[in-house]
Each structure stands twice: as structure tokens, then as C-alpha cells.
Design brief:
Distance between the termini: 42 Å
CATH topology: Rossmann fold
Shape: globular
Structural class: alpha/beta
Number of domains: 1
CATH superfamily: Vaccinia Virus protein VP39
Number of strands: 13
Length: 288
């Protein structure tokens, strides 16, 4: 039975009351109870919030992403995130800090933040990872780190309003109003999104016509209290992908499901591939 790392900030997804740990369950004052899974996570995704029987990334997608990320192919993205966290996190006055990874997937970025960021090691930091895919959260628990792993939705994060100092969202789904509810005044969001030329070589192979799209505009963020305070682009070329890594990349991204039959066949015949990785980081600050 794996250890569960409790968080004082968790609330019941049904009535928003605080959750307390009693044995291997989290309970609220109304009597709602959520069992801790044997792997060491808790499912706080109400049935009525599920849009399918098994929402989020599939087990196959998670396993492919695990193999790809553990090979270090996207480590520069993780390193850049760690640097940004160090620059943006206010740890003055020895206060405790709470960071949540919204859409944590298999936990790669949050686990490296926990183990590779010197600031995190020296500071009293509480780390939470939330993902709608139970397969992703189950995989994340295998890092065996003091991180609170939760099956949940970004649309209703199961944490106390105004309790988070920083939210990271790595290629995840989000809306400004979702995050505004749970951030402290002055809290920040670090977004990582695909740049216009991200994986362009793969896209040119599998699509007849490649649509180059800029990162989405940050519309209406001021209306809920956000302002953009930093934006930077990271571009690098990972080591040459072998055949298995090309297949993992296809499975872990939406491209496999968007491509037509000919495009998939072309990609599956590749023995190796050189790629451009391009990621845009944006930092938002929340003011009430």
C-alpha cells in the first residue's frame, strides 16, 4: 500500500467543504468520503463531471509519454520550467508555498521540479498534481515523491479558493476563470504551449497541408484579474528519434488521431526522425 501525501488545501468536489484524512479516506463534514487508492492517490472527480467513462489520456497514451519523457527528449522544457519557477516564486519571509500542476499527466514535469529545482529543496513547498486521466495519475505515483496526486478536473480544481501561489499548466486545457478561483492575490500561472513550428517535421510528413498556428490569444484575461508579465520561447532539437520513439511521439500527441490513413502509414515507416521542438512559455499574474 503506497503512502499518500495529504494536503491541507483539499476540498470536497461535491460541496466544497474541507477534506480531512481519516485512515485511508478523505472526508468532509457532510459525510462524503473518498478512499485513497492503493497506489497513493485520491480520485476527486465526481461522476457528473466525467464526459466519458474513462476521461483524459488513455493508458496507451500515458505509457508512450512515459517512455518518451524518461528518455530525456524533452528535458530542456523541464529545465526551462524549473528556471521560470525559480524566477517567479516568492519565497521571502520563509513562508510556505503551494504549487499545483494542472494537467500533470504522468508527473514528469512536477517530479523534476521536486527533485531538480534547488529553490524547491530549500523552501517549505507543498506540491499537488491534478489530472483527469486516472492512468496518468497512477503513473505519477510511481515517482514515490511527497506530492499530492489527485484525479480531478481543471474546470473545478478541488482545492480551497485563494490557496495556491503558483499553477503550472504544461500543454493542458485551462480557462482564466478556473485558475482565478484558487490563486492567492499576486499568485501566478506558468503556461507552456506548442510554438508555431513545434514538431514541424513530423507534421509535414503526416498532413497533406500543415496549418501553422500561433499560441492562442489571451483574450479577456484582464476581466478576471490576470495580466501577462512574461513571455519567452524555447526552441531546441532533441536527439534523433529512433523508430520506437517516433511511434511513442505519435501515440502521445493528438497527431495520430488527426492524421489520415496515408499520413499515419508514412509516419509508421520512419526508422528515425530529427525534430524541432518549439515551446512558448507565458507567465500570468493574478490580482483581485
Amino acid at each position: 500500500m503506497a503512502k499518500f501525501t495529504p494536503s491541507v488545501n483539499l476540498i470536497c468536489p461535491l460541496d466544497q467543504q474541507p477534506l480531512t484524512l481519516e485512515g485511508r479516506s478523505l472526508k468532509c463534514a457532510s459525510g462524503h468520503s473518498f478512499d485513497i487508492a492503493k497506489q497513493g492517490y485520491v480520485n476527486l472527480l465526481p461522476v457528473q463531471k466525467k464526459k466519458s467513462k474513462d476521461p483524459g489520456d488513455s493508458k496507451e497514451m500515458i505509457q508512450a509519454r512515459q517512455r518518451f519523457l524518461q528518455a530525456g527528449l524533452y528535458q530542456p522544457i523541464s529545465d526551462q520550467l524549473n528556471q521560470l519557477v525559480s524566477e517567479q516564486l516568492d519565497v521571502s519571509g520563509n513562508k510556505s508555498v503551494t504549487i499545483l500542476d494542472a494537467g500533470c499527466g504522468e508527473g514528469y514535469y512536477l517530479s523534476r521540479l521536486a527533485t531538480e529545482n534547488k529553490l524547491i529543496e530549500k523552501t517549505q513547498v507543498e506540491l499537488l498534481g491534478v489530472d483527469i486521466s486516472k492512468w496518468g495519475v497512477q503513473a505519477a505515483t510511481k515517482y514515490q515523491l511527497p506530492i499530492t496526486w489527485i484525479v480531478g478536473t481543471n474546470a473545478q480544481l478541488p482545492v480551497e479558493p485563494g490557496s495556491l501561489d503558483l499553477i503550472i499548466c504544461m500543454f493542458g486545457f485551462w480557462q482564466p476563470e478556473w485558475f482565478a478561483k484558487v490563486l492567492k492575490p499576486g499568485g501566478k500561472v506558468i503556461l507552456a504551449e506548442s510554438g508555431v513550428d513545434h514538431l514541424i517535421e513530423l507534421r509535414e510528413i503526416i498532413y497533406k497541408e500543415v496549418h501553422r498556428k500561433n499560441v492562442p490569444e489571451l483574450k479577456d484575461i484582464a476581466e478576471v484579474g490576470f495580466k501577462l508579465i512574461d513571455q519567452q520561447q524555447l526552441e531546441f532539437r532533441p536527439a534523433t528519434l529512433n523508430k520506437e520513439q517516433v511511434q511513442d511521439l505519435l501515440v502521445m500527441t493528438p497527431h495520430l488521431y488527426r492524421a489520415n490513413y496515408e499520413g499515419k502509414q508514412s509516419a509508421q515507416q520512419l526508422d528515425q526522425l530529427d525534430l524541432t521542438a518549439q515551446v512558448v512559455f507565458r507567465v500570468l499574474q493574478y490580482q483581485t
